Amino acid sequence: MKYSLVLKTNSGSVSNIMIGEALQSEFQSLLHKIKPTKTVFITDETMVKSLHTYCSPDNKSVFILNSGESEKNFDSLKRIIQFFFDQQIDKKSLVVAFGGGVVTDITGFAASIFYRGVSTLYVPTTLLAQVDAAIGGKNTINFNDTKNVLGTIRQPNHILIDINLLHSLPRRQINSGMAEIIKYGIGFAEELFSYIESLKKIDAKAFLHLVRRSAEIKVKVVAKDQDESGGQRKLLNLGHTLGHAIEAQKNQKLAHGEAISIGIMFAAFISEDLGHIAKKDLERIRESLEKFALPTRAYFDVKIALENILHDKKKAGESIDFIAIKKIGHSYIQRLTLVELSAYLSQFSL
Ligand SMILES: NC(=O)c1ccc[n+]([C@@H]2O[C@H](COP(=O)([O-])OP(=O)(O)OC[C@H]3O[C@@H](n4cnc5c(N)ncnc54)[C@H](O)[C@@H]3O)[C@@H](O)[C@H]2O)c1
User: Fold this and answer.
1) What are the structural domains of the chain?
2) How many CB atoms are located within 10 Å of the residue 317 CB?
3) What is the mean pLDDT of the chain?
4) Between 110 and which of 80, 218, 248, 265 could a Cys-Cys bridge form, CB atoms 3.0 to 4.6 Å apart?
């Protein structure tokens, strides 16, 4: 079974998305159709073997990052740009990102600034990247301890989401991706949340459904509000205010989705306190996250978390736009003063 989706933004850019199993021949057909002057590949040390099995690139055309969040930095960006120069890519070349969200984020950034934009094809290989990071055109790196502070918005031209690539993905990373899928359910689609609650095991059919529904939701939101100016796209940040702040703390060992899981629970905690969701919904949210062995509380330094939140892009004067939950399937923007936020953080930290 194959699905196609088109993300057409209000600024006119288009991402063609294909979702399915074993898409190697679709990958080759795409290259044939695009006919780039040159194709180069960015991947990481974990995925380089799979890349060679998937599409047999010439060794010289492959740039390999170390694996992990710490690679999303200025130095790696510079090395990728140098690689583009060494490979003599031009405006008609194609840059393929083959990996998780770290690879797609930094590749997208490098490709968006090289000659002010070279075409990209993403093959996301983690569940998290398939349902979230690869879609929507946010291309970023971290700077000092602040997540995603440097970047551009530019849509990848093509995204090939092959769920067979998830076979090698460790359970912990699958669970990390589930956090973002649960986010879509809580924030946008009650039926997706109920589906997750009722899941007994995730087989290929379930993966296809989860990935497809998540992609549809993200496409719909980004199509209306690519630049986060209309409020809609901000809602995708459910769980990310505290999630990013925890992720940015030095020596934290959490996967992205694990940090987001704690952030989702924080949003649920505030939403219950504000009287929007009932205690039983708070428990449903906790259970859905725990079902995938995701953490729902953590110790964090409140002062540092607050500083990180202030560095993050959600600040507006002395308040922040916090994404809260009106009811399961519906999120909204709640203005919180920094005093209120600080009090909630103190109550929530273990
Ligand atoms: N741009 C966006 O809109 C957006 C949205 C959400 C998250 N993100 C970013 O995405 C990043 C997190 O992405 P991630 O969770 O994919 O992390 P990641 O890219 O670090 O991948 C996690 C680990 O899994 C390994 N891996 C990847 N594919 C594999 C496979 N098929 N089999 C075995 N191992 C595999 C990687 O090498 C890495 O060690 C964060 O930097 C986050 O900020 C971006």
Assistant:
1) 3-168 (3.40.50.1970), 171-348 (1.20.1090.10)
2) 8
3) 95
4) 80
